[in-house]
Amino acid sequence: MKFLDQVKVYVKSGSGGGGAVSFRREKYIEYGGPDGGDGGRGGDVWIEAVEGLNTLIDYRYAQHFRAETGVHGMGRNRHGHNGADVVLKVPVGTEVLDEDKELIVDMDTAGQRYLLARGGNGGFGNTHFKGPVNQAPRHANPGLEGEEKAIWLRLKLIADVGLVGLPNAGKSTFLAAASAARPKIAAYPFTTLTPNLGMVDLSEGERFVLADIPGLIEGASEGAGIGTRFLGHVERTAVLIHLVDGTQENVAEAWRTVRHELEAYGEGLEDKDEILALNKIDALDAETRDARAAELSEAAGVKVRLVSGAAKLGVTELLREAYALVQQRKAEAAAEVAPPEDWAP
């Protein structure tokens, strides 16, 4: 399945049906009076977040969505039926924005629904206008027009931990070693062109979602390479795992490059918990490994973990550390929204 994380769509709710102008005509019934029914209401346009989707590819070729128009009212006080609604189903984590890219709603919960465009009300039939002064009204209301708008859908994947690093840092190999995901792996830069998700199962009840984000290069925040387009997918993560290729000469500069791009992108990425790891240690001798780990630790000012996705060295330990941080951040977030202990409704 192809990955698509941003698309523009057009939605229009249904217009209401017009009310009817009709008079009761039956044999032996004098002064039948008005009996025009009301028009049906136009259909609404809804958006709903559903599980099981991780791309917006369904909206690549179908970009116009119109709800059904309400049926006009009829004689004998018959109400026109309401127009059918249209529901746009999107992955959890989809943001809905207006044409100016201002946020309308964040669909971050499975089952969440939001009304994008309300259908127009049906018009009143002439029955509504009868009275002692006007006992035979010959007019009815037309239905109201539906709403029409263009919106942007932007997907930000829901993941607990994000993998960042330069191209060929070994992120896809690490993801494959940590989960059942099978991303493309090859010995050339930009093997990964779209984000990949994997479910990490440490033990029963200990699991989290890991996202592999395509590699950043120097100048990505200014559009170089594939830019920072996919960094939006790590905005929702609690923890970042920053992998540095241990086989390159200047590991400190590799770390600085990615950190600079994270800070340039903003949106709080630079403040997230970061676990720094020297990857591909299976390809290094002990002396080189220790020297490069020390260099990286001195530059970053933090402890450096030693891992190898290909040989699965240190992977489980690193994942457990990430899981502990994820749980800690979730507990802190829950505490912020919980009412105080002495609170009473």
Give a summary of the structure in a few sentences:
With about 350 residues, the protein is α/β, with parallel strands linked by helices.
Distance between the termini: 49 Å
**CATH class category name of the largest domain:** Alpha Beta
DSSP E strands, number: 14
Give the helices and strands as they follow along the chain. EEEEEEEEEHEEEHEHEH
The radius of gyration computed from the alpha-carbon positions, rounded to a whole number of angstroms, is 29 Å
Number of domains: 2
**Total of helices:** 4
Helix content: 10-25%
Shape: rod-shaped
Poorly predicted ranges? 183-192
* CATH architectural name of the largest domain: 3-Layer(aba) Sandwich
CATH topology of the largest domain: Rossmann fold
Secondary structure layout:
Elements: E1 6-12, E2 45-50, E3 64-66, E4 86-91, E5 94-97, E6 103-107, E7 113-117, E8 148-155, E9 161-164, H1 171-178, E10 196-203, E11 206-212, E12 239-245, H2 251-265, E13 273-279, H3 286-300, E14 305-306, H4 315-337
Parallel strand pairs: 1-3, 2-4, 9-11, 9-12, 12-13, 13-14
Antiparallel strand pairs: 1-8, 2-7, 5-6, 5-8, 10-11
How would you explain this protein's 3D organization?
By secondary structure, the protein is α/β, with parallel strands linked by helices. The protein folds into two domains: about 1-155, Distorted Sandwich (Spo0b-associated Gtp-binding Protein, Chain: A); about 160-335, P-loop containing nucleotide triphosphate hydrolases (Rossmann fold), CATH 3.40.50. The protein has four helices and 14 strands. The strands form three sheets. The protein has a six-stranded mixed beta sheet, sandwiched between helices. Helix 2 (about 250-265) packs parallel to helix 3. The longest helix has 23 residues, at about 315-335. It starts with 5 loop residues before the first strand and ends in an 8-residue tail after the last helix.
